[in-house]
Amino acid sequence: MPGYRIFEKRFLKQYKGDGFEQHLNKIGFLDFLREVKNYASDLPKFGQYCVVGIDELLYMIEPTDRTAVAIEIHRQLGSVAQELEHKLLDIQIICKGKLIRGDSLWLQYRNEKLPIDIIFGDLRKQEDRNRNEFYLASFNLTSG
């Protein structure tokens, strides 16, 4: 399914028998940003990627700078949206922390509230038939 599928690590098959199968192409979030920024046109059509580390990245940033960094990540991903859509990529964004839907979607990680909604938009929680929870975002980063 093209787009970003965002979910907690606990919904992977290795932790939950009927969980999501992890894509084989595993890459850190910063490396993913670099790849799509510099080499989006070189990515294979129908590629599948497992992107990890978004929680660590946002956590390591000073709390006062998190919103600005999230806006910049949103901008960078948005700038390559058309190319990623054309490639029909399936990208898993795997979170170690807990995704919490309140007035907005945020990521609770190491007792910090991280602004994932600023990056991916205002998404609704979805469930597959095995009760695996996820959020789906299109590459243009509007509600999925």
Major β-sheet profile: 6 strands, mixed
Q: Largest beta sheet: what is the strand line-up?
A: 2-3-4-1-9-8
Total beta strand runs = 9
- SSE string, helices as H and strands as E: EEHEHHHEEEEHEE
Would you identify the regions where 5 or more consecutive residues have pLDDT less than 50?
Answer: none
Distance between the termini: 12 Å
SS summary, helix count: 5
Beta percentage is 25-35%
Q: How would you sum up the global shape?
A: globular
Secondary-structure content class? alpha/beta
How much helix, percentage-wise, in residues? 25-40%
Count of the separate structural domains:
1
User: What is the average of the pLDDT values?
Assistant: 94
Radius of gyration: 14 Å
Question: What this model shows, in words?
Answer:
The structure is a single chain. With 144 residues, this protein is α/β, with parallel strands linked by helices. It has one domain. It is 31% helix and 28% strand. It is built from five helices and nine strands. The protein has helices at residues 29-39, 54-60, 66-79, 81-87, 116-120, and strands at 3-8, 25-28, 48-52, 90-95, 98-101, 105-109, 112-114, 125-127, 133-137. The strands form two sheets. It has a six-stranded mixed beta sheet with strand order 2-3-4-1-9-8. The protein has a three-stranded antiparallel beta sheet with strand order 5-6-7, with helices on one face. The chain is globular, with a radius of gyration of 14 Å. It starts with a strand and ends in a 7-residue tail after the last strand. The model has no long low-confidence stretch (mean pLDDT 94).
